[in-house]
UniProtKB/TrEMBL annotation:
A Pfam family annotated for this UniProt entry: BPD_transp_1
Record's protein name: Sugar ABC transporter permease
Membrane topology according to the record: Multi-pass membrane protein
Coiled coil: none
InterPro entries per UniProt: ABC_transporter_permease, MetI-like, MetI-like_sf
Membrane-spanning segments: 69-92, 104-124, 156-181, 210-230, 262-287
């Protein structure tokens, strides 16, 4: 009877089988084949190619462009993660107050996040051009000395890309933080206020620990998104000027579709996957530990 009862309570795995087969066909099989091509000299077109072992991976160590792209990728990811979440938290605290226009502000601040990244990037590329609206506005208010070639200066281009990404997705982080703030019971704040705790003390001792789940989600999304960033970088600068804003993603695209080095580009993609996996796993373990300690 026990065996029969277990059989009846067992999940019907065959219902999941069609989805698993489709996932294997669309995702798993191409991924495994892609990993195999990373060890070849395939050019993407010729059916004849050779197995070269770890040559593609060892070539990265001597490729200055690849090393620079890895550095840019990590720099962008860290900068976006810190600035985006700091701005998102400030915005969430602002629109969580009792101001009358809070609902309108929430919609206004979240709106950029629903726009296609490529559209946003092309919009900002026009605004940030040498004769764009940003420089025109600076000149109109007497700040001519602040006019810059925002996307053409190697020292500014990378940070300009970071600024555009933060502008678009800070509202997304705001919404997640706002959900966390609204889940904090008002009674706790009222009790802390009655005990004499000021706004800063209430935030640090009461709100901040209860925001740990929202912070974990935001940090995970922003670090992974920053590491994989492609659309905005390619549309804004194309990886330039020179290689000043090249990331692993843009280098993968260039090596594959411009230089025809598909084997090498897939090896770069494997490295990118490893970086994402290590960063996300390490961050999740660290944040989960802090989240448990805070609770």
């Amino acid at each position: 009877m026990t065996r029969v009862r277990r059989a009846r309570n067992a999940p019907p795995w065959w219902f999941v089988l069609p989805a698993l087969l489709l996932f294997a066909f669309v995702v798993l099989v191409p991924s495994v084949r892609g990993v195999y091509y990373a060890f070849t000299d395939w050019d993407g077109l010729n059916p004849d190619f050779s197995f070269v072992g770890l040559d593609n991976f060892s070539a990265m160590l001597s490729d200055a462009d690849a090393r620079q792209a890895v550095w840019h990728t990590l720099l962008i990811a860290v900068a976006i993660t810190i600035v985006q979440n700091a701005v998102g938290l400030v915005l969430a605290l602002g629109v969580n107050s009792a101001i009358k226009s809070r609902n309108l502000l929430r919609v206004f601040l979240f709106a950029p996040a629903v726009v296609t990244p490529i559209v946003t990037a092309y919009l900002w590329r026009n605004l940030l051009g040498p004769d764009g609206a940003v420089n025109s506005l600076l000149g109109a208010v007497g700040l001519d000395g602040w006019e810059q070639d925002w996307l053409g200066d190697p020292d500014l281009a990378l940070w300009t890309v970071v600024g555009v990404v933060v502008w678009q997705y800070a509202g997304y982080s705001m919404v997640i933080f706002l959900a966390g703030l609204q889940s904090v019971p008002k009674e706790i704040h009222e009790s802390a206020e009655m005990d004499g705790a000021g706004p800063v003390r209430r935030f640090w001792s009461v709100t901040r620990p209860l925001l740990a789940p929202a912070l974990t989600i935001n940090l995970m999304l922003s670090i992974i998104g920053g590491i994989k960033l492609f659309d905005q970088v390619y549309a804004l600068t194309g990886g330039g000027p020179g290689h000043a804003t090249d990331t692993i993603s843009t280098l993968i695209y260039k090596d594959a579709f411009t230089l025809g080095e598909f084997g090498y580009s897939i090896a770069l993609a494997v490295v990118l996957t490893i970086i994402v996996a290590v960063a996300s796993t390490g961050q999740y373990l660290l944040l989960s530990r802090n989240e448990k300690a805070a609770s």
